[in-house]
Structures
1.
Amino acid sequence: MIDLAVANREETFERMREPLAEREIQCHHVPVRERSVSLADPPWDSDDYDVGFVYPGRLMEGGVADALLEVPWVNDQNAVLTSRNKGGVIARLERVSIAVPDSVFVSNQVDEAELRAVFERFEPPVVVKPNSTTRGVGVAKAHDLDSFLGVCDYLSLVHDYHATGDKSFLVQEYLPEATDYRVMVLEGEYVGAVERSLSDSARANGQWKHNVHRGASATGVDLPEAWREIAEAVATELEIPFLGVDLLVAGDRVVVNETNARPTIDTATKYEPDFYDRLAAVIRSTAESQP
């Protein structure tokens, strides 16, 4: 039996626990955030676990957990950092000719003249997106220059605080009527996908973000082979073992919008039939990599 430390939120832990137990992998929930941890007498013993699932999203908490658990991770710190840097991901993918939205990276502070020049590159509306947040936090849509500058002013105010580590954001083209897909890739191979959509009432109320954590629904879908290959190419380029790849499809365009190295695991019916067999194999091989 392999003992797996899972620092993800409870929903992912609960969904993966039973399927992995059937494959001789025991999941243990080890939440590292929003709690106190005695460093002299920690709640975990490094001898209790063989491997970690994905490195914690909060890097300071992750550093403490990593030191205490002393395990290899399926997705390690570098994987999480690589994926979280949205601008870095877009730049890397564009360099290898993987389609992405037209994007400009802005490192605050910049003056108004430069922001005006950025806005004028696009056909409004534009999407303004903090570079390293998750779950759609801080993402805004600006229909005109005044509203765009207002969003940028707000980000500048936030970035004025010395404790704010990442002072960058992206400005991207907005793809109206695009369909949003989260594609899951494991060890470079497609393992499932969902279409994320909003209800008619949500759209009528002005909602446009497709994040499940903001009310969108996720429905399992069978993607065309060409789209699967795009997601696989992204995971291979970024060298991330377990990756969520967000595709936007608008007419003939298929672009990679974002990636997530700490993806929420959905219900098993939304994945390929052998998903948990393959996930178990990756967990075992990661555990065996420990000297």
2.
Amino acid sequence: MKKQKWIQGLAIVLFAASALQAHAQRDFSKVDIEPKPVADNLYMLTGAGGNMALFTGDDGAFMVDDQFAPLSEKILAAVAELTDKPLRFVVNTHWHGDHTGGNENMGKAGALIVAHENVRKRMSTEQFTKLWNRTTPPSPAAALPVITFSDVTTFHWNGDEVRVQHVGPAHTDGDAIILFKKANVIHMGDTFFNGSYPYVDLSAGGSIDGVIENARRVLEIADDQTTIIPGHGPLSDKKGLQQYHDLLMRLRSKIKTLVDAGNTREQVIAAKPTREFDEHYGQGFMKPDIWTGIVFDSLKQQQ
């Protein structure tokens, strides 16, 4: 058993190391920023990292997340192609670098950075992620959100009411979803991974139950015409979010049954509780064994 645990631990360390190395070696010059129309004057922008949203109009450009710093010039060029108005606000859905890496550059370009207060707290201090055995240093002062909120804040902007709502511990402890009320569009950040198992950052206060609960709450406010922008993956809708919610509920139940029966972490992973869904949902960043381990740890934290 000790040997099995050591091998599993080594595999996770090597996976994390290879992921970091791949990021460090990535050639961002080959990444294009692609806009996809979502509603009038509202776009999803993709490149490398989390999905962004861009809302344009007479008041100025409003953006959700900003990916990695090396892409900032391309992102700003994409914004300029879609509007001649300046970028006024960037809202961060959470603190991870693939969503906040461009903060400093966007701030220097004139945008005000907005986020939940926990995003600023985590970005301003060293963070240790146990799963990857990785330490993230504090962000530069110029990259920190300059406007923070504790629960909800609303922008009356470009003829719409844009509600930015903290959703409690889910992907992290600082997640926010953004509702464009008139456009009937919701950006869910990394509380929604469309087409893959979601990463739950337990070291940053995340919780599998929180991810499921947030999906349930968004389902309550969405209707059949709502467009949903996930943190990762293609555009979705209420039906797609319902499938995601139901999948997580089903897999949580299977893993909890194994936990309640007294199985160890290694035994639960070895049981392959996600097996029937792995071909579709387990081919991305979150591999099945690692994701099962995260859910196990999340459930154990709640006991």
